[in-house]
Structures are given as structure tokens and as C-alpha cells.
Amino acid sequence: MGSLSDLENGEINKKEQEFIKKNAQNLSNSMMRKKSDPELVSKIRFKKLREILGNLQEVILGTKLCLLFPVIPLAMLAQYYHFARPWIFAFSLLGLAPLAERVSFLTEQIAYFTGPTVGGLLNATCGNATEMIIALLALYQRKIHVLKYSLLGSILSNLLLVLGSSLLCGGLTNLKKEQRFDRGQADVNSVLLLLGLLCHMLPLMYRLSVEPALINNNVTTSILGLSRVSSICMLVAYAAYLFFQLRTHRQMFESSEEEEEDKVAGDEAVIGFWSSFAWLIGMTITIAILSEYVVGTIEDASDSWGISVSFISLILLPIVGNAAEHAGSIIFALKNKLDISLGVALGSASQISMFVVPLCVIVGWIIGVDMDLDFSLLETGSLAFSILLIAFTLQDGTSHYMKGVVLCLAYCAIAACFFFHKLPIRNNSSGSSAA
């Protein structure tokens, strides 16, 4: 990491900048951005005011989702004036979409000044900031069922919906071209997902191996202990994956298309380091506020709309929260850049499965909330078949629209299952109750 003057002047090795810009998630989110017109603020005489307005222009108006920003104060006003809670939930959920995209933009800006290692770690931490904050707030409020469904939904939406729609749209657009991708990155993420699946299945299999009449506090405590040990293993594996991605095998995770390199070669930071850092803190706080509204009103929205909490948490939250990243993945698939689309979908799924989920278990351990990895049979089965389906889909390194059709239909089938899943959730030690 350079000196303070280096941070402000953006003096960083060109090769490192290219690695930052070629990160799949950064490239995907960049498709939802739009270039601002510097002429709008260049005529302002006062330098400080010009810088402030320039930052506002880049951060607030620099995204195609800027029309959703007014929803954020609406959500806060609705909460303050005690509007109907389903309205608070809807406004808050919509407000999270542009915030999630802007967090990605700001971490990318900071990465220009800090180098690829720190930038990569920051991107890995903030890449799914919305899901992480919602999960931690649900954990704090002891809504374990909302936590588990939202994280499972994020994994499934990335694996089936995002990747499936990308393969479908890319295949239909490039019917006369054979779409190929680098299997190396897909194999690494598939292995990580399978390891995460094993860690999820062990507590479930342990519970199912015990006769229902014999399940007592000792068994529950053992499942909790097994989940915590498995979570530590998952976090160690994710740390090794980051070292693998950022240090020893960096080239495997770079976009190799020449035209993409030409496109990003002229990119540079548009706001300073400290401005980006301040905006990132502000955006994160805003996400936390809206996420608290979402977690606090989700049951009321479920009752009002007649939709189960499981469906809202597993389907609606991931789709709206990551709309920008999902759209970017599809756009790159349309341009026959499947490596980027795969990096977005598989990278996000791996991050949630191997980092966010075990992190919640460890944080719950610290604050005294009994969060485990037992996601019940239906949920774990859906995850298992989704990962296996992805592994078979990507095994030959080629793609066509039929693979996308299968993945999208699999997601629709799972969504339909949880739409009708309105039975009470199995009671656990944390006291979670109804779906």
C-alpha cells in the first residue's frame, strides 16, 4: 500500500490496475454504470463545491439504477411515520438494489489506490455486503429461519438463475458460435461448493441418524459443535481460496478477452481514496438501516401478501438485492464472454457458501445465538442437487442455450416448491418458528 500522496494521486502499477479491473464481479457491475458529463460541474468556480458536486454526480448519478435512490428516503419516512409495514418492506427492498451496486463501485475505486491484494480482499468482503448485513441483523434478532433462507436463496439464485439466464441468453444470441469458457475457474469454484455442501450435510445427516425420540439437548449441542468446527474448516478453505486467487494463480481469474482489455485499459479512478472510503461507510450504514427494516417487516409483508417467509427470503431478497450484478452477468454472456459470467455467478455463490454462512455461525457463537449448519432436508436437498447440476453442466467447458433452459427451469421448480412451503419450520435451539 502506497503513501498518502500515492493514494490521492492514484499512482499504482498499471498491471495491478488491470487485474483489479478485470475482476469478474467488478466487470459485471460496471455494465450497470453510465459515464457522467464532467462539463456539468466544471464551470463551478469554487473548488471544494466542484469536488463535492462531482462526487455526487459520480456516486449517485453514475448508475443506471439511480432512479431507485428516491426510494431510500421513502423507506425511512415510511418507517418514521409508521406506514403499513409491507410498504416499508417493499421500499427498503427496492432501495437495496442501487446501494449494492454502488458498494461494488466504491470498493473498485478504493482498489485502484490500494493494489490488487488489499483491493481483492476488500472486494471479497464487500462483494455480497447486502446479504451479509441482512444475515447478521437476522442473526442478532434471532430470526434464524430468515437468515438461512436468505443465504440459501443467494446461493441458488447465483447458481441457477444468474448462470442459467446467462447461458440461455448467451446461447440464443450466439447460435452460430460455439461458446467456450475456461474450466479452471469453474472447477475451483465447484470444488469449493462441494466442500461447503459436505459441511452443510454433516449436521443434517447427524440429526437424521438419531432416532427422533432420542433427540435431546446433548444431540442438539453436538450438532451445534459440529457446525462450528465445520464453519472453521470452511473459513480456512475460503482463506486458502483467496490466497490462490490473489497470489499464486491470479491469471486463472482474469478476463482474457483482448477486447475487454482494450476497453478497461483507459479506465481510471474517478473519485479520490478518502472520498470513496467516506462514501463506502455512508452506503454501508444506509444498507444496514434498510436491511434492519427488511428483517423487521418481512413477516408482516408475508402475512399481508399471502406469501410465505421462505419464498420472500429465498427468492425475492436475492433477486432484488443483486439485480445489478445479475444484469451485468447476462450482458457479458450476450457478448460471448462466459468467463466473466461464470466468475460472477460461481464467485458469489462460493463467497456466500464458504464465507458468509460460516461467518454467521461463528458470530452467533460469539454473541450467544445458536446458529448451526443444519438447513433441514428440503433446503439442503435443493442445494445439493443444484450444485451437482452445475457441476455436470460445466464439465465439458462449452455452453449452449439448452443448458441455460435446464438451470432456469430448475430454479423455477425450487421457487415453486418454496412458494407452497408454508408449513411451520422445525423448531431449533434458537427458537425459530414459522415460515
From TrEMBL:
Membrane topology: Multi-pass membrane protein
Domain Sodium/calcium exchanger membrane region: 87-246, 276-419
TM regions (residue ranges): 59-81, 87-106, 118-140, 152-175, 187-206, 226-244, 277-298, 304-324, 344-369, 375-394, 401-421
Entry's Gene Ontology molecular function annotations: calcium:proton antiporter activity
Keyword tags: Antiport, Calcium, Calcium transport, Ion transport, Membrane, Transmembrane, Transmembrane helix, Transport, Vacuole
Family matches, as Gene3D superfamilies: NCX, central ion-binding region
One GO cellular component, as annotated: plant-type vacuole membrane
InterPro entries: CaH_exchang, CAX-like, NaCa_Exmemb, NCX_ion-bd_dom_sf
One Pfam assignment: Na_Ca_ex
Domain of life per record: Eukaryota
Signal peptide boundaries: none
Subcellular location: Vacuole membrane
Amino-acid biosynthesis is among the record's keywords: no
GO BP: any one term: intracellular calcium ion homeostasis
Function recorded in the entry: Vacuolar cation/proton exchanger (CAX). Translocates Ca(2+) and other metal ions into vacuoles using the proton gradient formed by H(+)-ATPase and H(+)-pyrophosphatase.
PANTHER family cross-referenced by the UniProt entry: VACUOLAR CALCIUM ION TRANSPORTER, VACUOLAR CATION_PROTON EXCHANGER
Family: Belongs to the Ca(2+):cation antiporter (CaCA) (TC 2.A.19) family. Cation/proton exchanger (CAX) subfamily.
Name of the protein described by the UniProt record: Vacuolar cation/proton exchanger
Gene: LOC104226600
